[in-house]
Design a protein that fits this description.
With 212 residues, the protein is an alpha+beta fold. The chain has one domain: Protein Transport Mog1p, Chain A, CATH 3.40.1000. The protein is built from six helices and eight strands; from the N terminus they run H-E-H-H-E-E-E-H-H-E-E-E-E-H. It has an eight-stranded antiparallel sheet with strand order 1-5-6-7-8-4-3-2, covered by helices on one side. A hairpin with a 2-residue loop joins strand 7 and strand 8. Helix 3 packs antiparallel against helix 6. The longest helix has 23 residues. It is globular and about 50 Å long.
Amino acid sequence: MARRAVGGTGMRAWALAGLVVLAAGLLSGCGPVKPHRLLSQPPAPAQTGAPLPFTQVDRPVDLAKFDSDPCSLLTKDQAAAVVADPPNDIRANRRATLPAFGCSWTNHGGALFEALKPVQNPSTLAELSVSPLKKDGELDPWTETSIAGLPAVVYHVFRHTYECSVSVQVTHDQMLTFDIQGKDLPGSYWDNDRCGGLAKMAEFVIGNLRQS
């Protein structure tokens, strides 16, 4: 008579149980899968230059595309570089109310990135530099620079350091203003350099306007 191996069934059961525990441990160790970023590396900072006189606009920008379709002035890759990466949940909304027209972009209800064309005073850097807010120190710190070869200013409305604005003189009688409103920047590369993110946004938008 063949002798039955003692404990064979029990050992197989213990082995299966061990595999189940091991698999569960591996799965729990993985945690939630992070969204796959569109960009392979963080974007390079905008190329800013020395300050220019506010009236020195050697290459005026044609604003026809900004007037007709401002929300098209960031490509998908550019929105990922500025607003949030991955850009799948970015929402663009056209702004058509005074005192400025343009577009805003946001990710998961976070802060707004805006590209605006002011149509009421101040609508130029010269007007902004003598505005009541500037005279009262409500735009400090105020830093003059240049972006895409155009006069530009970086400032903080009401001195809120978590918000920032960048205004660029794009024609002889018109500036564009780029700003962040709000604190949370989910998925953004610029949470610790918000003004740098706006300078990059300005560089993208102006570059796209010049190519349109």
